[in-house]
Amino acid sequence: MRSAAAYYGNSVQSLPRSAMRLPLSQSAPAVGIAAAAGPAGSHAAPRGLTGASSRSSVRPMGSRAHVGCSGVATCGCVGGAGGRARQQLQMRRLWAPTPALQPLRRSQAPLSRGMAVVAAAKGVGKPKKDDSPYKDTVNLPDTKFNMRANSVKREPELQRQWAAQRTYETLRDANKGEVFTLHDGPPYANGDLHIGHALNKVLKDIIVKYQLLAGRKVKFIPGWDCHGLPIELKVLQSMTAEQREKLEGLKLRYKARDFALKTVAKQRDQFKRYGVWAEWEEPYLTLNPGYEAAQLGVFGRMFLNGHIYRGRKPVHWSPSSRTALAEAELEYPPDHFSRSIYVALPLQSLGEEVPAEVAGVLQGGALAVWTTTPWTMPANKAVAVNGKMQYAVVRGPGGRVLVVAEDLVDALGEKLEATLERLATLTGQQLAGSRYSHPLDASRVASVLVGGDYVTADSGTGLVHSAPGHGQEDYMLGLQHGLELLSPVDDAGNFTAEAGPEFEGLNVLDEGNTAVIKALEREGALLKEERYKHKYAYDWRTKQPCIFRCTDQWFASVEGFREEALEAIKGVRWLPASGQNRISRMTESRTDWCISRQRKWGVPIPVFYDKESGEPLMSEATIEHVQKVVGEKGSDAWWQLPLEDLLPPELRDQAPRLVKGEDTMDVWFDSGTSWAGCVAKDPALSLPADLYLEGSDQHRGWFQSSLLTSVAATGAAPYKTVLTHGFVLDEKGVKMSKSIGNVVDPRIVMEGGKDVKTQPPYGADVLRLWVASVDATSGDVGIGPGILNQTADTYRKLRFTVRFLLGNLNGFNPATDSVPYDQLPATDRYMLSRAAAVFEELRSSFENYQFARFYQAVQRFVVNDLSNFYLDVAKDRMYVRGIDSPDRRACQTVLAAVLQGLLPALAPVTPHMAEDAWSHLPWEAHVPSVFQGGWQSSPVEWTSIPEEEASTFRSLLAIRGEVNQVLEKARTGKLLGAALEARVVLHVADPSLRARLAALDASPNGADPLRYAFIVSQVELVELAAEAEGTDYSAALEVEGVGALTVGIARARGGKCQRCWNYSEQVGSVEGHPALCERCGPVIKASGFQLPEPTAELATA
Length: 1101
Hints:
Elements: H1 4-8, H2 83-95, H3 113-122, H4 151-165, H5 167-174, E1 179-180, E2 182-183, H6 195-213, E3 217-218, E4 223-224, H7 229-237, H8 241-246, H9 249-273, E5 284-285, H10 289-304, E6 308-318, E7 323-325, E8 330-331, E9 337-349, H11 356-362, E10 366-371, E11 382-385, E12 390-395, E13 401-405, H12 409-416, E14 421-427, H13 428-431, E15 435-438, E16 441-450, E17 464-466, H14 472-481, H15 511-522, E18 526-533, E19 538-539, E20 547-556, H16 562-570, E21 573-575, H17 578-589, E22 593-594, E23 596-597, E24 608-610, E25 616-617, H18 620-633, H19 637-640, H20 643-646, E26 658-660, E27 664-665, H21 667-672, H22 674-679, E28 689-695, H23 702-714, E29 719-725, E30 728-730, H24 746-751, H25 764-773, E31 781-783, H26 785-808, H27 814-817, H28 826-847, H29 851-880, H30 886-906, H31 911-918, H32 930-933, H33 947-972, E32 982-988, H34 991-1001, H35 1010-1014, E33 1018-1021, H36 1025-1029, E34 1033-1039, E35 1043-1051, E36 1055-1056, E37 1063-1064, H37 1080-1087
Helix pairs in contact: 4-31, 6-25, 7-9, 10-18, 10-23, 16-17, 16-23, 25-26, 25-29, 26-29, 26-30, 28-29, 28-30, 29-30
């Protein structure tokens, strides 16, 4: 038989480094629960349960090892214990496909800490037989809560459990708090979800779950945008050219509906896999008849309020899609180049205000204009000048006389590679009224007009070529002066006959542009051509350039309610605050909204036209009737039913002279009326909604369209708070692109890729934890393998901590075993005060949508407060004291309180882990789900700890860090093997603090004496610094919050207890158990344990 001394003599610090690079084997519960069967307090136990020392916070990868790093799996540092390779090896072992770690019960033979690590390092399947007579007397953690999440299997199981128990529905219906409405912005139903969708929907779900935990009534209705061109294009792309030719409008709508519904079903399943709770069986779809009817109702109210009109004006037109586009449907690539030209327009006559001295030199001159759209020259109807700007008459190449802005003479000279001679100057106002001939048609004569502030000397020539049919400012100038709206371009972007026979049929963005430039050169009007990089609108769907084109369209007159909208913006809470300025600027500068589209798949504009005159017929009666029909039959009825059935009874006799309009509504009008189609229709929701949450691009999209429709129809904003998040980039800050290969698929994040080494299955909770960690509401965020690995490491720390708590609460029932607050040791009261402060910070983080703050706070709590301090020092009480001892029950009281507060706090972000842990509570829970347990408010007494007492513990923790530093030096110097071999001699210069520490040290309980805080066998508080300096190893320090401090380390006095490993001068005084100390002896005697006779030699071993 081996002696107990031989058995207990191993410690982690005495092992070779190679034995410290692996997590403990399956036989030992080391990771997150206990390092092995050895008693708490031995330095063989990891100093930090979840991966940091008592002096460290969460350390980034690549940082140095912390002081006292033991190298076991719970340590997250990558320094002295094997570095990055050790950490990677640990992670591979943690997530390798091996049998789940089983809990270690008292009936099993435990390993010592040192032997457990050795066994793991050697890959031993079973530990060597433990011959210690006290092997079954240590109270080891016991839980079936798995160290490994096994997310691919376990998360779907928990989701099915929620569905079977109707957890979300029960909370939705049973909560008694106020209504909280988070209105879902509808994603587009035209493909698989990407990581941006995951970010958005998980953020929403975190909010929903927290609000439910807080007792509020929450009904979250998911939505989908189901109409519009992208879905039409998907349908058309799936067909052959011959099939497309034969496809009728109504059949196209049927195919588009089928495609949208299939996509909705696919996206819904993907959202559910994220753990998102919602009304999945009753979402709002913009293609539902009830929704379409509500949309028509908003349109009708806006029409009756005078905000809807039909007009002919230039709009963004997509030749590739053959439809008008709204601003929100445009994008502006950063590298667009246009063919810009400088053109001379020959003057025919001078205005009345041109000074006589200038008139003489202007004879035979020309106006120099500049444009980035040469193809609009055939539609030129005027030249705009700034009335206050100075213009120069100059002589250029070949003696040609030109008019150009005074401030741009030199710039134009550089462009023309010539020195321009100034001949005279005049103002724009004086030049106005002059006439010029069109360079491509001398019979067309136009005027110089005073334009607006858009005419500047920032670029070009200071004279603006104006084509009212192809530009917004030009259009306004044309309205002011009665100019013709010439727009000789068809739906495909080709010149019509109005442009002239030379250009007819040519595409304006291609050969048409070239033909115009060549014609101008032929006529001697082209001064210069060059490539020009600038902002240019593209169709966001086809990625092709757009044009401005004058067409007959339906518009919402933003001018009619702009001031109301701006006032409504002021009453909304914008997060971040910069959102208010952004949407205000966009609303101030917004032109009238073109809401008509020349497509088939959408909600029809309910208008009829006279066959002969083309005059529209639309009234309150016609709109209400169409709304009723659509509500009953859906918008297909507009194409299915005869015209007379779409008219109210009193107007049916007019059907023979009418035709139905063919235009559909802008999809932004569809989604922008969701406040009416979803929120206003459901009595369980409140309008205005409490929160809208989408990407920052929606200030010009859904946020704005919702605001405009709501203000125009009801006079109020549809939301109280608007929260925005940034875009998702890769971990280098680069936009994701399939061509680059940096796209992160949320499904692969959760389920893993083909190569699990490079794409491991992290599960939904890690994805959700990433969402909380990245502070998405402050800007763009990154994701990639490195970031996900770090997030997974944080998740493991959280899970290991929860497992430790569960394991050490085995056999504890809060209802019967809790220790009253006023009977708790000071250490426990301090821990509860910290828990209360942290839980309040977490609550505040959720209430204010500060999810990164939650992430940081919960990490600090788990690492600094729990792992590095309380759980570290708690092991001694939990493992060594009697099962029902007051000290152990006091500790369990705190552990239970922390667990009961931590699980609800984690539940919004990592719901699967929180629910899994709840199902493993060692006592019978009063409700089946952690969510039904609600948010746990801390008792007032937890926060009532006196400041002096709290200050004492803050100082104690600072001292503890310094003690660890000196202990490390003593170990390095071979004075000690394990920390329990040490006696700490401590001198604190501050007499007040020294007295308070002395009071703690004199406490009769098993928690407050300083040796438990330092995890050493003995502590001496001395009056003189010299006493500490006289030890084997010492350090004199100045510590913030402590003052002058001297720490000395010597070997502990007495013998080593063979059960708790503490050193005591009373070892050998316990009758019948000569190898035990004064603490362990009574525990063993009370248990009735008898030392076998052959092992009596322990006394002399």
